[in-house]
Each structure stands twice: as structure tokens, then as C-alpha cells.
Write a structure and sequence with these properties.
The chain has helices at about 5-35, 40-45, 55-65, 70-100, 105-120, 125-135, 145-165, 170-180, 185-215, 215-220, 230-235, 245-265, 265-275. It is mostly helical. Helix 1 crosses helix 12 (about 245-265) and helix 7 (about 145-165) crosses helix 9. The protein is globular and about 70 Å long.
Length: about 280
């Protein structure tokens, strides 16, 4: 075996080892939570390795008399879906306007810079101001207030990503559609959106997951009726007791929508993230 081949084999083994370690560090915590959800509280606190799986934690989370997880789950579906649709629609139209209309270059660069800077602002710093604002206009503890807040939080990310995808579409395709007599709306619907579909799906999934997992703003703007899943999970940590196993069961259930979204849009995500990498 040549020296170069040995070097390549060593590099491949090192890369595989690194990928295996990264997979363990990524999957390990979720696997631990999944196993904890099938333990009793005593077995978990004692660190029991061998245990008899029980379903009582899931029964309590889903059907318990004091549990509000089902309502929290529906609230999260509503908030994440509505805010994702709003952020995607506004972000797409704003990105198209910035890149296709005759805006000065400094305006385009300023908007995209704002999108980056806003993403660096911790959401918790905005929660207090939003609470006072929505209380003043009669939307205190209302799901609509959280939808508006999540749309504002994730619009910059949607704008930045969709603008980068839109930049890869040749203008000549749209000009050809206009020459053939297509209207502006028809050009967007029949030409631009189909080409951007991988980018739209990947961006939509990212925005949905970010909205689904958002906690500090949801905690500030909701009550028991309008709380989302992350807020509902936090409520298992009570004053005199922390229900670890029920918290684990609720965490596993809360991960299902994100996993389904990733499985559904996997091929679109790969295409979207590699768009423009290969000419």
C-alpha cells in the first residue's frame, strides 16, 4: 500500500471518527430524554440503568386531569404555522422588492444588514416592551400577540435567506415571462416560486422550528390558556417538585412536529442549502 493511500485512509478514518462523535453528542441527549420518559420518577432519580418501561408519564401528560399539554400543543401549532406563513410571505415579497425593483444599493445593503443585526438581539430583551405594547392595545395574553411577536422575530431570518435564494434566479426568466404576456402575479406563481421551492421549503421549516421552540417571549406574552409547548413543559418544574419524567415525556412529544417537518422537507432542505454552490 502506497504512502499516499495510507494517508488518505487515515484521513477517512479520522473523519468517520469525528462524524461518529458528533452523532453521539447530538443524538445522546435526546436518547437519554426518551429513555427517561419511560422511567418512574424514583428510577430516574436513583440512576437505574435496567428498568421496566412504563407509559404512565405519557398518560399523565396527555390525559391527566391537571395537564394542559394538549391545549399547549394546539396553541403551538397555531402560532408556529401562522407566524411562519406571515414571515415567509412578507419576507418573500420584501426580498423580491429589494432585488428586482430599482432600489439604491445602499438601501438593499442596509435592509440586509438590519436583518443580520436584528438576529443578534436576544428575544428576551424585547419581551418586556412587547408585553406593555400588547397590554395597551388589548391583546394581553392573546395568541394573536404571540403570532405578531414571532413574525417580527423570524422575519429578518426569512428575509435574509429568501433574498439569497432569489438572487440565484436569472432575471431573464422573468423578463421572458413578461414578454409572453404573463402578469406580475402569474410570473411569481408560475416562474419564480417553482424555481425557489427548495429555498422556500427549507426556510419555512427553519422558521417553523424556531417559532415552535421559542420560550422567553412566549412565557411573557401568554397565560395558562394561550401558553405554547415550551411554556407548558416548564410548568412541570413546580415549587415543591420537579416532575422530570413527565417533563421528558412532554419533550419527546414536542419534538414530533419538528422531526416530521424535517423528514418531509429533507430533500428540499439539501437542495436549498446547496443552491448556488454549484454552477
Amino acid at each position: 500500500m502506497s504512502t499516499r493511500r495510507k494517508q488518505n485512509l487515515s484521513v477517512d478514518r479520522a473523519l468517520l471518527g469525528f462524524l461518529f462523535l458528533a452523532a453521539v453528542l447530538t443524538i445522546g441527549p435526546f436518547l437519554w430524554i426518551a429513555l427517561a420518559s419511560f422511567k418512574t420518577q424514583i428510577a430516574l432519580l436513583m440512576g437505574t440503568v435496567k428498568f421496566t418501561p412504563v407509559s404512565m408519564n405519557y398518560d399523565e401528560v396527555l390525559f391527566g386531569n391537571t395537564s394542559t399539554f394538549a391545549r399547549n400543543f394546539l396553541n403551538s401549532v397555531l402560532v408556529a404555522s401562522a407566524s411562519t406563513m406571515a414571515a415567509m410571505t412578507i419576507g418573500f415579497l420584501a426580498g423580491y422588492s429589494l432585488l428586482r425593483l430599482r432600489w439604491p444599493a445602499w438601501v438593499v445593503n442596509l435592509f440586509l444588514l438590519w436583518a443580520v443585526v436584528f438576529n443578534l438581539v436576544p428575544p428576551v430583551t424585547l419581551a418586556g416592551a412587547w408585553y406593555e405594547l400588547f397590554r395597551g392595545i388589548g391583546l394581553s395574553n392573546d395568541t394573536v400577540a404571540l403570532i405578531l411577536a414571532h413574525t417580527t422575530l423570524h422575519l429578518p431570518m426569512a428575509l435574509w435567506l429568501l433574498s439569497s435564494f432569489l438572487r440565484e434566479i436569472p432575471r431573464e426568466l422573468e423578463e421572458a415571462a413578461f414578454i409572453d404576456g404573463a402578469s406580475f402575479v402569474k410570473t411569481l406563481w408560475r416562474v419564480v416560486i417553482p424555481i425557489m421551492m427548495p429555498g422556500l421549503v427549507s426556510t419555512g421549516i427553519l422558521v417553523f422550528i424556531f417559532s415552535w421552540n421559542e420560550f422567553p417571549v412566549a412565557l411573557a406574552l401568554t397565560n395558562n390558556t394561550s401558553a405554547t409547548v415550551p411554556v407548558g413543559i416548564a410548568k412541570f418544574a413546580q415549587e415543591n417538585e420537579i416532575k422530570y419524567t413527565q417533563m421528558a415525556a412532554a419533550s419527546v412529544l414536542s419534538a414530533i412536529p419538528a422531526l416530521l417537518a424535517l423528514l418531509f422537507g429533507q430533500r428540499y432542505i439539501v437542495k436549498g442549502l446547496t443552491a448556488g454552490a454549484v454552477k
